[in-house]
Amino acid sequence: MENTSSDPQTDARLMIFQSHRAEILENPLQTYLLGIIISICGNVLISISLNIQKYAHVRQAQRGSKPYYTSVVWWCGVLLMGVGELGNFAAYGFAPASLIAPLGCVSVIASAIISVVFLKETVRASDIVGGTLAITGTYLLVTFAPHTSTHITAHLVQYYTVSWHFLLYLFVEVIIFSILLYVYKRRNVKHIVVVMLLVALLASLTVISVKAVSGMITESIKGQLQLIYPIFYIMLVIMIASCAFQIKFLNQAMKMFDATEVVPINFVFFTASAIVAGIVFYQEFEGLALLNIFMFLFGCLLSFLGVYLIARNRPKIKQQDRNFIAMDKIPGSRHTDKVQPEAKPSTYGSLAAKLMCSTADRTDDS
Predict the structure, then answer these.
(1) Interior/surface letters 193-203, b for 16+ CB within 10 angstroms, e for the rest
(2) What angle do CA 290, 141, 274 make, to 5 degrees?
C-alpha cells in the first residue's frame, strides 16, 4: 500500500488518464453521430461554395468587365466555404480524427453532382463508377470506424504530447520532412510525390492540433474551461502555422502540376496522414476489433479510388472552347485565360487543409 503511493505525481497522472478512459467508454453514440453529420454538412457546403465561385468566375469572364472579387455571387460562395470549414473544424471535437478526414471525399462527390446538375457539365462513366465507389467507401468508414471519441481536455493533450510513441513519431516525421525539404529546395527535385509528402507531413500536425483546439473549445462551452492552459495556445499556433505552410506547398503544386494529379494524390496522402496521426496521438484504434480495422482501411481504399476516378481527366479544354465560341470573339478568349488563373489563390484560405485538395480541383476547373 505504501509502495503504490510513493510517487504522487505518477499516481495523479494515472488517475487523470484513467478518468478520461472512463469518459471514453461512457461517450454517447449521439455525440459520435453529431460529429459525422456536422462533417458531412460542412463538406456539402464547401462543394456548393466551390461551384458558386466557379459560376461567378465563368459569368465575370463572359462579361469581361469587372474582376471576380467584385461579384456578390463570388463573395456568397466564399462565405459558404467559411461556414463549411467551420463545420469541419467543429466536427473534430465530436468524432475521431481518423473518421473526419476521410469524409472529405463527400465534398468531391457533391461537387461532381452539383456541377452536372446546375453547371451542365458532362457526366462520364468514370464519374458514375467513382461516385459509387466513394459512397460505398464512406458507408464502410462510418460503419467500421472507432465509435468512441475522447473528451479532449488540456490535461489529456499534455499527457498525449509527452507520450513516448508520439515523441518517436514526431522525431521520425521531422527527419523525413527535413530530407524532403532539402531534396525539394537544394536538389531542385520538383516531383509531385515530394511536394505532396511535404503537405501530408504538415497535415498530420494540422489534424492533431485542430482536434486538440476544437476539443478544448467544445469542453469549454460545456462548462469545463480549457482556454486558461498554455497547451491550448501552443496547439493554436501549431494549427495556424501548419495550415499556412500547407497552403504554400499546395499553391506551388498547383503551379507545377495539373489539378487532376494533385487532387487524388493529396486526398490519399492527407487522409493517410490524418489516420496515422489519430492512431498515434489520440490512440483511436485502441481496442478496435481486427475486422473493423480491415473494413475501415478497405473503405478508405474505395474512397481513394473513387476520388481518383472523379478527379482525373476533367474536361477543362472543352468547357473553355464553349465559352469563347459563345462570345464569338477571339480576343475575349485571351481575356478569359488571364482571369482564370487568379481563381486559384482565392480558395486556399480554408482552415481544414484535409479538404483543400477538392478546393484546388474545382477552382482549377473554373
Answers:
(1) ebbbbbbbbbb
(2) 90
Distance from the Cα of residue 5 to its chain's centroid: 45
Q: What is the chain's length?
A: 366
Q: Supply the DSSP string of 23-71, one letter for each residue.
A: HHHT--HHHHHHHHHHHHHHHHHHHHHHHHHHHHHHHHHHHTSS-GGG-
Cα separation, 227 vs 154, in Å, equals 8
Cα(171)–Cα(175) distance, integer angstroms:
6
The pLDDT tens digits for 5-40 are 455 555 555 555 555 544 444 445 778 888 899 999
Q: Are 323 and 57 in contact (CB under 8 A)?
A: no
CB 253 within 8 A of CB 199: yes
Residue with cell 496515422: 276
Could you read off the pLDDT of 200-225 as tens digits, one per residue?
999 999 999 999 999 999 999 988 89
Contact 366, 49 (CB under 8 A): no
The b/e string for 138-169 (b: 16+ C-beta within 10 A; e otherwise) is bebbbebbbbbbbbbbbbbbeebbeeeebeeb
What is the C-alpha separation between 272 and 16, in angstroms, rounded?
30
Q: Strand (E) positions, 163-263? A: none
